[in-house]
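Lecture notes, part 5. Sequence design as translation. It can be helpful to think of inverse folding as translation between two languages: the language of shapes and the language of residues. The source text, in structure tokens, appears below.
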């Protein structure tokens, strides 16, 4: 398939899963620089958009919500990908805004994220350098072959949340953390039960909460 066809499908599929502020941010925040990165760098290097999220919402260290340009979540790895324009990230920042930006990135790393930053000018003028960096990332961090069931990005995120919190999963909590509707969250949880990755933590006829079965440890060889 051509890039334009796959790109349009990629954006449409993510819009369908978003609601409220998350959907608005995807519509308004995903612009020229982000599309150029996908076209000039990601697509030539990877050839698909699996495991990739645009304008990915995460909890901010100030108890708000911030959006990453891209999140690549695969297995136990979470990669934040940011596209930086020189003017917007330097000339227009005062010293305290600059310090705040660094603090945000530090908290992201401490929370287990890896961070890759790409300069807009290099994406535009010298994309092969950035392509090579993406390929190095794939080889260094994702060299092991996936051997478990095929899970969606959202399902992998649910497993990650369960492993990090060690607390029963509630549908409304998953709905809020993934910024999806509660019905969709329930469907994801029930599918993970069918795959024997989750099991009921409370409730029998109607499951009220979920927990890991232990089989999630064998997802990756």
């Amino acid at each position: 398939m051509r890039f334009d066809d796959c790109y349009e499908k990629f954006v449409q599929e993510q819009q369908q899963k978003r609601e409220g502020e998350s959907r608005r941010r995807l519509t308004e925040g995903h612009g020229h620089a982000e599309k150029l990165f996908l076209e000039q760098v990601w697509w030539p290097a990877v050839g698909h958009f699996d495991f990739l999220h645009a304008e990915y919402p995460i909890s901010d260290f100030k108890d708000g919500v911030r959006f990453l340009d891209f999140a690549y979540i695969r297995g136990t790895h979470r990669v934040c990908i940011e596209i930086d324009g020189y003017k917007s990230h330097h000339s227009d920042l005062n010293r305290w805004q600059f310090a705040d930006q660094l603090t945000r990135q530090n908290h992201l790393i401490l929370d287990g994220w890896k961070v890759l930053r790409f300069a807009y000018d290099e994406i535009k003028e010298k994309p092969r350098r950035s392509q090579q960096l993406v390929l190095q990332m794939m080889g260094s961090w994702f060299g092991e072959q996936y051997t478990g069931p095929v899970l969606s990005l959202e399902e992998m995120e649910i497993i990650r949340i369960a492993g990090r919190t060690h607390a029963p999963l509630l549908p409304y909590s998953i709905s809020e953390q993934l910024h999806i509707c509660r019905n969709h969250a329930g469907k994801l949880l029930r599918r993970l039960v069918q795959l024997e990755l989750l099991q009921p933590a409370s409730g029998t006829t109607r499951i009220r909460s979920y927990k890991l079965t232990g089989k999630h440890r064998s997802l990756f060889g």
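The translated text above is only one of many valid answers, since several sequences can fold into similar shapes. DSSP finds ten helices and six strands in the chain.
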